[in-house]
Amino acid sequence: MGSPHQSRSLCDLAMANGALSSAGLAFIARWEGYRGRLYNDAAGHCTIGYGHLVHLGRCNGSEPPIFLDGITNKEGLDLLNRDASKAVRSVNAEVVVPLTQHKFDALVSFAFNVGPQAFADSTLLKKVNLGQHKLVPAQMALWTNHGLPGLVNRRRAEAKLYVQGDYQ
């Protein structure tokens, strides 16, 4: 038998088929921001809620009727959870080492933001899979689109979540 500390750590580990925690979803939601009405995002695409892509191109009145009168915060969170499932699947498919819940959630946030393919191709993923967890924050910091302040702050928060389990 291992020590109680070892048992507790093993109980906290997630592997393949991990799920995004409610704290992880809230973490992503804070970074995405909520808008209950249709809007054109920074790339000029019709969006609603927590960054849910309604369609490519500007909002033009052809949007599904369910979005025309806006959505509630809960509906936005439901869409975000559904949208984040692609990142969850990517982390589950690509990570081959055990992770604590907070590390899993941090990687899902990262994969959600950069995209599942970019995550799968990243050196960051290689470091995770080699168990080089101390190198992950530096890898995250490279993904800031040439130092955009919002992305710099998001990567710092993801790194803090990854290393310390701090969801704030």
TrEMBL record:
GO terms for biological process: cell wall macromolecule catabolic process; defense response to bacterium; killing of cells of another organism; peptidoglycan catabolic process. Signal peptide: none annotated. InterPro entries: Bacteriophage_GH24 (IPR051018), Endolysin_autolysin (IPR033907), Endolysin_T4_type (IPR034690), Glyco_hydro_24 (IPR002196), Lysozyme-like_dom_sf (IPR023346), Lysozyme_dom_sf (IPR023347). Gene3D superfamilies: 1.10.530.40. GO terms for molecular function: lysozyme activity. It comes from the Bacteria. Keywords: Antimicrobial, Bacteriolytic enzyme, Glycosidase, Host cytoplasm, Hydrolase. Pfam families: Phage_lysozyme (PF00959). Belongs to the glycosyl hydrolase 24 family. This is Lysozyme. It comes from Arthrobacter glacialis.
